[in-house]
Task: structure prediction
Amino acid sequence: QVQLVESGGGLVQAGGSLRLSCAASGRISSVYSMGWFRQAPGREREFVAAINWSVSSTYYADTVRGRFTVSRDNAKNTVFLQMNNLRPEDTAIYYCAASSRFRLTGLRSQYDYWGQGTQVSVSS
Result:
């Protein structure tokens, strides 16, 4: 089992920044990639970004590319999502997810473990 705990959410004005963290524990050796997803009220959960745990390759959704940056600290088993130039449409609950698959993907079904989520609200 892998446990994931997100933190860093909050309320920010449009154009502002937030940095989310996701601390992983448990059977870390089974994890090859980490992803961030988000879910706004009344909408399906959507992919945001992913990073490979070992080689640090990254993959982004078109809606956030150039504004968001995913990174990781292997020593701390933590993944980060730096979010800049935030927009009201970025408002959602943000979830961290872990996958046992090496290939980066935006498919929810490819992720085995999920955190509880952290709320991000962007005011206009």
Observations:
- The two ends are 40 Å apart (CA to CA).
- The first strand starts at residue 2 and ends at 7.
- The mean pLDDT is 96.
